[in-house]
């Protein structure tokens, strides 16, 4: 990421979100702030935003990963919600050179926080 405040608007390939989060040491910063979970969700209207029921289930079970997909299987790739424990993201970030991911080689749209304004 160009900055810790950049948000992607399109897919970055398997492992892309973990790589981008770890590039600015975000998991360690979040852990120091007391954050326990990171949510990665689709931008569709079907599943978007923080999912407290999924987060509660992941926390209650002590799981490292929780996921929810749409019941409409025709839109499964566009409608997802993943919650990772910060500790799990930190452990994945340490293994980025060992993990085999498939990159999507293309420019991605993003927004960035500039002088307290989100800009494209």
TrEMBL record:
PANTHER family: 16S RRNA PROCESSING PROTEIN RIMM FAMILY, UDP- GLUCOSE PYROPHOSPHORYLASE
GO molecular function term, any single one: UDP-N-acetylglucosamine diphosphorylase activity
Gene Ontology annotations of biological process type: UDP-N-acetylglucosamine biosynthetic process
Protein name: Uncharacterized protein
Database matches in SUPFAM superfamilies: Nucleotide-diphospho-sugar transferases
InterPro entries, A to Z: Nucleotide-diphossugar_trans, UDP-sugar_pyrophosphorylase
